[in-house]
Design goal:
With about 200 residues, the chain is α/β, with parallel strands linked by helices. Helix content is about 40%, strand content about 15%. It is built from eight helices and six strands.
Amino acid sequence: MADREPVLTSVPIAELRPTQMTVGYREVAEKRRRWRENDAGKRAAFLAAHMVPTLLGPKKHHYVIDHHHLSRALLEEGVERVLVTVVADLHHLDKEAFWTVCDHRSWVHPYDADGVRVGFRDIPKAMADLADDPYRSLAGELRRAGGFAKDTTPFSEFLWADYLRRHVEAKLIGNDFSAALKEAMALAKAPEAGYLPGWCGRVER
């Protein structure tokens, strides 16, 4: 049997619900910059190729499980709608059961900007309300610079952000991002980071 094509739905970005507390504002700004570099044709093609995966949750709200940074960037650029593809229909569950399923399926990341786990009720209800985690921006830039490989582990960049949070001073990220990235690169190659997804440091023999 041939695989079925995903069913796509056009949804207002303002109505999308996050499944995490934060994004990296610096990373959002970079996605906005790239968006502005494209003409209308390329923007349309980009949107068609970047479907946002969601869960259909209670009251049939769409809960985003990937592309939070992209959704936030497009919202800030004035894009009103995106195509979503529903990964799982859980709208029949009450909120408590819904979040329990999300937690066990690694579809939710309820950690605040300090890396502290919070209650599901604290998760923002809109993309516009996501807080900034500078360490998530540092982790994203570290991956693009080759510090670690892209990995399918859910929220892998947040795992790296948590590692960097314990070793890189927040003041350095704010005052000298390039220096913070250089420090993060050295940390990424250390054996102590070997437990992290996408680690590509040297294995000592």
